[in-house]
Amino acid sequence: MTIDAIRELDRRAVLATVDVANRAGPADLSRPTPCAGWTLGDLLAHMTAQHHGFAASARGEGADLGAWKVRPPGTVKSYAEAADAVIAAFAGEGVAERDFALPEFGPGVAVPAEQAMGFHFIDYVVHGWDVARALDLPYELDAELLEAARPIALAVPDGDFRLEPGAAFAPALGATGDPGSLDEILLALGRSPAWPRVEGA
């Protein structure tokens, strides 16, 4: 996949998250989400921080841990502003040739722009669904986005390390879902499409 292709796919995935987040009101920020222990406000604060961190990396400033700092409470307005910022940063001059510092993966970790944007893209494919489920709204992505997301999701290593605090994804669930579906991607990354599951059901 070319850098231009993943950048455009990421832009579309991010805008889809903004569309669904914009349907949340202030009272919705206390709703639970599929991210264990996080309210919708917590999730939006995390998503906002990740946008700022990736935007900093696109500018060559991502090694600064302060760029990745979560600043709760998360709001719909701050999230939309951060989404605009990361889209603009990814489109910046010289970004395609830059390695992105990703200090959350470890000190000194940096990866090529295309790979970093792929990480960002798959994260927001999943987080868009997280927000939609918290709001009890349907969430659909077009076939092109799902086709691009599938190999990235299936390539994410699985194992007990996904149980560690701060892990991006929970361990993959047993069922695989229909190939090419959003459910398949969610299951591979530890999300149950049936969330929230009613106890005893």
TrEMBL record:
Residues 17-132 form the Mycothiol-dependent maleylpyruvate isomerase metal-binding domain. It holds the Pfam family MDMPI_N. InterPro entries: CHP03086, DinB/YfiT-like, Maleyloyr_isom, MDMPI_metal-binding. Signal peptide: none annotated. This is TIGR03086 family metal-binding protein. It comes from Actinomadura rugatobispora.
